[in-house]
Write a structure and sequence with these properties.
With 309 residues, the chain is α/β, with parallel strands linked by helices. The protein has helices at 14-26, 61-74, 137-140, 156-165, 185-193, 289-307; strands at 3-11, 31-34, 78-80, 84-88, 94-98, 103-111, 115-117, 133-134, 148-152, 171-175, 197-200, 203-211, 214-222, 228-232, 235-238, 242-244, 275-277.
Length: 309
């Protein structure tokens, strides 16, 4: 077990965490970043990223995160590969305990643990993550221009993804396990009016089918009669929800009904003085790398000012 002390402790990596580290370190504050289980965050699951400013050509999510990480290290951020599992914000300096039994004391905390997409958790899914299976139409939809895709889900997010994909894809098939969609009526009306979009009700995805690293289709099964069918698609977008990584924070900071951290308007400040949040862990709406990075910069600036830069 080791003990660490810092002016600013950043919990989580990814665009928000690394950017927070870059900005915090440049203020001259002693900065430690604890990476978490998913080093680099969800963006590492993206094969090609075309919409992050500053990159003329597509870059993989892993490459982008590695570049951010190196920049943070070069600016003096101490990155520790560990996971914070418990926090105590009741006394000062704040105290955080890790999976590896390390203890971190900090004058200010920036939480950047993100939100994890919910997956179908079937055996064939893992092989095609980033190679035909995505959880972000805004990130990856352009790559399916003129192709056939499917969206799994029936809520507002699924229908929003389908409508967005219809701008590029030749066809969009919504796969829903119930006999009616859960999305609001206006969203359902838009779906019905779009000739590119169709819905298959009462079906679940049984298997992803492909050749090598290329997804070719999905096997679906009707939940009422067990009839199976194979649909040929080039891409599948899983839209069954996200879960913010905030379980370790319950009782320490204010969370909304879905577990996202509540921050003040136009700010990264939480209900605890000196504790800030940035990125997807507080943003259920956009879930974009560039927006997460921007909020990481905001959190670092606010933390440094709170400490009396």
């Amino acid at each position: 077990m080791a003990q660490y002390q810092s002016d600013i402790l950043i919990i989580g990596s990814g665009p928000a965490g690394y950017t927070a580290g870059i900005y915090a370190s440049r203020t001259g504050k002693n900065t430690i970043l604890v990476s978490g289980d998913e080093i680099g965050g969800q963006l590492t699951l993206s094969n090609d990223v075309e919409n992050f400013p500053g990159f003329e050509k597509p870059v993989t999510g892993s490459e982008l995160m590695e570049t951010m990480k190196k920049q943070a290290v070069n600016l003096g951020v101490n990155i520790i590969n560990d996971t914070i599992v418990e926090v105590d914000f009741s006394h000062y300096p704040f105290e955080c305990s890790s999976q590896n039994h390390n203890v971190f004391y900090a004058k200010s905390i920036i939480i950047a643990t993100g939100a994890s997409a919910k997956w179908l958790e079937i055996d064939s899914e893992q092989a095609y993550k980033g190679y035909g299976i995505s959880v972000c139409a805004t990130c990856d939809g352009f790559f399916y221009k003129g192709k056939d895709v499917a969206v799994v889900g029936g809520g507002n997010t699924a229908l929003e993804e389908a409508l967005y994909l219809a701008n590029f894809a030749r066809s969009v098939t919504i796969i829903h396990r119930r006999e009616s969609l859960r999305a609001d009526i206006k969203a359902q009306e838009k779906i019905k009016q779009n000739p590119k979009i169709s819905v298959k009700y009462d079906v679940t995805v049984e298997k992803f089918i492909g050749e090598g690293q290329n997804l070719k289709g999905i096997k679906i099964k009707n939940v009422k009669n067990d009839k199976e069918e194979i649909i040929k698609v080039d891409g599948v977008f899983i839209a069954i929800g996200h879960k913010p990584n905030t379980e370790f924070l319950r009782g320490e900071v204010s969370l909304d009904n879905n577990g996202y951290i509540i921050t003040q308007s136009d700010s990264c400040k939480t209900n605890i003085e000196g504790v800030f949040a940035c990125g997807d862990v507080k943003d259920p709406k956009f879930r974009q790398a560039v927006i997460a990075a921007g909020s990481g910069a905001m959190a670092a600036i606010e933390a440094a000012r709170w400490l009396g830069q």
